[in-house]
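step: validate -> pass
step: tokenize input -> pass
step: predict -> running
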Amino acid sequence: MTDREFTIFLVDDDESVLKAIARLLRVRGYRVQSFASPSAFLSNHDASIPGCAILDVAMPDLDGLALQQALSASDSCRPVIFFTGRGDIPTTVRAMRAGAIDFLTKPVNDADLLTAVAQAERKDGEIRATEAGRSSLNTRLAMLTPREREVMQHVVAGRLNKQIASDLGTVEKTVKVHRGRVMAKLGVRSVADLVRFAERAGITGGQA
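step: predict -> pass
step: emit ->
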């Protein structure tokens, strides 16, 4: 049995379902945390842990779709798989539109569940890689002074040094110094690299 870092959070008010699915997933090497209610899950949920959530749709205190919305509202990008005792096309559509990986009907087919979990694992990895990259960009941006951010904004907008100097009420030599510091701090070697950096960070020539 392998020991994946990926953790599966099971939420269902049916204890027998929790035990059966947890057993299947643990045999396949997954870490599993089981919760008998949405409130228990939300109270103990750690979004920093790689994993996905498998949620029952029909639960007494908070249904699965509402729980999915609560996760989204808390800025958690946790991939979600739903299962339900009764298939319902409108509910399925709502779940998928909200970003669910899959919507499975009980009794859940083992192969279908494992396929959905594998897809969720890939999705979670992609999300975390993107977030890590964005965090790295923001860390480097935080190194810039306010004036350096202004210069960066103008450079990304395609302004020449003399135009930037005129806009900022300074001299071209000073702009060149700021521009060099911006590129050094951000670890870029050309204007093209700087523009690509800005695009990844969500910065355009109109904002910095």
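step: describe -> The beta strands are 7-11, 31-35, 51-56, 80-84, 102-105.
step: cleanup -> pass
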